[in-house]
Amino acid sequence: MNKKIACTGIKPTGAPHIGNYFGAIKPALGLVKDYDARYFIADYHALNAIKDPKKLKEATYEIAATWLACGLDPEKVLLYRQSQVPETFDLSTILMAFTSKGLMNRAHAYKAIVQANKEMNKDQDDGVNMGLFSYPVLMAADVILFDTDVVPVGQDQAQHLEMAADIAQSVNHNYGKQLLTVPQPLIQKSTHSVIGLDGRKMSKSYNNTIPLFLEPKKLRKLIMKIVTNSQTVEEPKNPDTCNIFATYKLFASEKQQAEMRKKYKAGGMGWGYAKQALFELMDETLTPYREKFNTLMENKDLIDKILTEGSIKARKIASRKILFLKKEIGVA
Ligand code: ADP
Ligand code: TRP
Q: Which ligand is in closest contact with the Cα of 139?
């Protein structure tokens, strides 16, 4: 029996962080055994924000090296750059014809910019390019192209995937048959929204991230910046409202979590201690991955080779789908 398909993408807009890891990368790698997996670097999505070619290129290598360092086996998973699979853009053009402008007007990311512009008395579309406005269509194309069943992502992508499902359904409805597989998000309950240094959702756009592969000294410095309340060392503390503990939980075993909880509740533990414990645990966990990542980043030819091979395999599947669709809609 054919396996179901899992597909997800990450934008190369900066160094990948622990929110990306726990929200998308780890759950995606967990699916590899039971699904046919297609994981990609959404470079054309990143172009909406990153106009510096060096930055875009470097971030693309960083995302690829991250997937590989975290254990992606390119023999088992298709790993590619979105821009190397141009069938995506055929499909995106087709899907445009089935996507109402009103749907795009309702996208959270676009609405947030409009709102901010209004508050600053600017034109409501100031700084909005068409790539950003139609972002959900391209994202729908990314996954629909491969007849994707499940898309492992963080909570922030839920709306985008509802839109992808809506668009796929409008196509199927128009032709009266199941031409497209309707994708479903797979959002991990415990890690759907990893908290950043300032207590908001961790995101490159908020500048509050803990990058996955920082050198130990820089990692420690960043962890020391986690925002806490002003409780004294003596006071008992509540782990469940604490940013440090929220991050600690992601890395700690059940036993380590229970021990740390005790220390919070007993009092006599200062924030400096909790931060140091978090640093030590993170550093110990991440060091082997960081070493692999650094080795890969020094071997970009190897990354290029893996991405090119991935895109060749991906295009074989994608071109069949596009040919089939073109015939069905009357343009081939
Ligand atoms: P960012 O918001 O930092 O720009 P991306 O948009 O590139 O990150 O996200 C890539 C993947 O990582 C998506 O699946 C997204 O849902 C997930 N992700 C991003 N931030 C978080 C977070 N704080 N918690 C959980 N998942 C996240
Ligand atoms: N929109 C996603 C993000 O901002 C990145 C992305 C692009 C994606 N295409 C995708 C995620 C397809 C899942 C599936 O993080």
A: 2
Burial of 156 (0-12, 13-18, 19+ CB in 10 A): middle
Q: Is the dihedral of CA 175, 177, 180, 185 positive or negative?
A: positive
CA pseudo-torsion sign 278, 284, 288, 290? positive
pTM attached to this predicted model = 0.95
Q: Specify the long-range contacts of residues 166-171, CB closer than 8 Å, at least 24 apart.
A: 166/103, 167/95, 167/98, 167/99, 167/103, 167/136, 167/137, 167/140, 168/140, 168/144, 170/98, 170/99, 171/94, 171/95, 171/98
Ligand 1 atom nearest to CA at 154: 16
| Cα–ligand 2 centroid distance for 115 (angstroms) | 23
Whether 332 has a pLDDT exceeding 90, the answer reads no
Answer yes or no: is the C-beta of 16 below 6 A from any ligand 1 atom. Answer: no
Around ligand 2, the residues with Cβ closer than 6 Å are 8-11, 42, 45, 139, 142-143, 151, 153, 157, 160
Which pLDDT score, from 0 to 100, does residue 319 have?
A: 98
Grade residue 185 by pLDDT with cuts at 50, 70 and 90: very high
65 lines ligand 1 (CB under 6 A): no
